[in-house]
Amino acid sequence: KGNPKTGKGQGRHQTIIKQINSLKSNTQRQGKAENRKMDNLSISNYFYLQVLAACLYPALLEDDSLPLDVKQRAESLLRECDGGSVGSYTDSSGIAKIKHCVSQYITRRDGGVPSSPDNIFIKSGSQTIMLKLLIRSKDSCQTGVLIPVPTYASFTLALEEQGAAIIPYHLCEEQGWTLQVEELRKALHTGRKTCNPVALYICNPGNPTGHIQSRKSIEEVIRFAAEERLFILADEVYQSCVYADDTEFYSYKKVLSEMGSTISSTVELASFNSVSKGFMGECGLRGGYVELVNLDPAVKEYARRLFSTRSCPPVVGQMALDLMANPPRPGDPSFPTFSEVSEVFAELPGISCQPLKAGFFVFPCLHFPPKAIKWAKMEPDMLYCLHLLEETGLHVRPGCEYGQRKDSHHIRFNIMEDALQRLKTFHTRFMKEFS
């Protein structure tokens, strides 16, 4: 995470992005990478950790080493807790002040599009609760949900647990993992033969693919959902992790609001965000929210009751969400400096990768020699991952766990510098052995 005083080491993440984007096939050589500024990574996690530490142990508020804005934020958050303690219960939908802070964050993000705290629910596991709202497991015809391929396994498992029918639609790898409406239509037509499709799940920016949708693509998807009367589940937890110069994140809510009243007032949408992902990456805090858009009042009230069946969301996670929604501003004591480094990773044989534009993961395609495929007694990418783990201690996930086209092979790994170096060493040796 670097030194919070000097800012040294905080450009390392930018370096890694450049290295990943240089993993191209031999026919796609790219020149020297340009320096890019990642504004979303310019805020050090030290601020968040200091505030949370002071909330958990208020005696730290007397410590002169903590910046003034850290103390002020911790005191403000503790005032919202009964007895000034993070151990107290809160409202089942989240602390009112934090919901208000989140709604202001959404309004800023979307250029002034209004957001109401009444439509925001702070929960850990909010996607599962939304699935309970949408899926009727006791119906004679299964409820269907369209999901992308590849997608992360935990969402697939959540659908299976709720008794939903999974309707896969394939992202186009050759065009940077783009979402194509014709593929959605094809998948929906196939799904309607065996189930009742009610929802479309979108992961944007993508996990594990690292892609991001253009505004035009989002408009096309929304029109499709309007025509087919599908509820949109927009997983936007990596929205703060956008790297490419020519790339911008557009929320589904913002685009929907600007498409004319016929569509903007009718398409139902649930938008998810979380501190467990994104540039904070504090996975164990389990703090996230869902914003509901265009739900019938009676349905929203039923959703409220569903969210209230669980006790309050983790208080520390709620506080982290407040910090994510309202980070230090330029001029605040905790606003750090940020340094950049430019470095390009050498190409590797037998591997190609779409440019990483957003998110924390990359999903390169592995082109195994016939000898390696013939030798494997399991999915070749699973064998690759097992050998990588045994020889280097590096744990990556095989593409077969996320879904991929027939006879294609991938791996998903986190964008960590050490991981890239170990992968490079292993991959070179592996390809040489089976050439």
Automatic annotation (TrEMBL):
Name of protein: alanine transaminase
Gene3D superfamilies, alphabetized: 1.10.287.1970, Aspartate Aminotransferase, domain 1, Type I PLP-dependent aspartate aminotransferase-like (Major domain)
GO biological process terms, semicolon-separated: L-alanine catabolic process
Membrane-crossing residue ranges in chain numbering: none
Biological source species: Cyprinus carpio (Common carp)
Pathway connected to this protein: Amino-acid degradation; L-alanine degradation via transaminase pathway; pyruvate from L-alanine: step 1/1
Family stated for the protein in its record: Belongs to the class-I pyridoxal-phosphate-dependent aminotransferase family. Alanine aminotransferase subfamily.
SUPFAM superfamilies: PLP-dependent transferases
GO molecular function, one term: L-alanine:2-oxoglutarate aminotransferase activity
Cofactor(s), names only, from the UniProt record: pyridoxal 5'-phosphate
UniProt-listed Enzyme Commission number(s): 2.6.1.2
Record field: catalytic activity: L-alanine + 2-oxoglutarate = pyruvate + L-glutamate
Quaternary assembly: Homodimer.
Ranges of residues in domain Aminotransferase class I/classII large: 69-418
